[in-house]
Amino acid sequence: MSNYWEIIEKAYTNYANYFWKSxxxxxxxxxxxxxxYLIIVSLLVxxxxxxxxxxKDQKVIRKDFWxxxxxxFFNFFIVNLLFFIALSEVTSxxxxxxxxxxxxxxxxxxxxxxxxxxxxxxxxxxxxxxxxWSVHNxxxxxxxxxxxxxxxxxxxxxxxxxHFRFHFMENVFYKxxxxxxxxxxxxxxxxYAFIIYAISILIGHLNHANVGWDYGLFRYIxxxxxxxxxxxxxxxxxxxxxxxxxxxxxxxxxxIFKTDYVPYDGANIELGFENDEDYPEKFVKQLIAPFQRKxxxx
Length: 298
Description:
The chain is mainly α. The chain has one domain (4-108, 119-289). The chain is 56% helix and 0% strand. It has 10 helices and no strands. It starts with a helix and ends in a 10-residue tail after the last helix.
């Protein structure tokens, strides 16, 4: 059996070194530098917001802009540094050790490693998006999961940085599910996850940006700002009381499963959720809120 403390120590050391190297060396080993990639993508989408804003009366430095900017770096880097990479490494090894102990030598149920990399990448993108659509749907329908997802829906003015305003526990919900299905079931290579993640960051930034795009006929395939704004609507229609437009990168799942809802141009609809005026506005209080019990009313 593996020495888990050594795995944790190595995971922390490796990621700390990687994080520092990302900052001081914009290009290293020919790999994508996620630190500067996030900065560049964010600046480009922000410039798009300035050049052609959808909500013209919304300020460039909108309400909670700096809170969302901090969330971006907290969720993208600091959470990984603090615990998520170590947790992922230990979970991966623990699962493999468990399978070995049970006498299961092959943990991949359907090995696609022999496919051409283009087809693997495309299938990975489609499957990963459907899995995330399913998790996102669950975040709205299961009460204890919704408590964590409320952080994301506390946004009152939409902009690109709102993409990364989410509770760090969502990383656990999404990534553990992705790992179980895509690595253990289908045996996809880890580098495909990095590529798809980079693409999803760009699409996610655009979906939350103050730009009035819907991509024309491609709106039935790709998620877009005019569709996603309705996902954040405070007022929910009778037909979608648990939410709508759950797509991450693709919108097609919402059209297939009838969770789509774009009644009109929603540029100026009110965002949030019921009783959000009582929801914490500060970072630390938002992180603590899902773990706090509701006060009973007499």
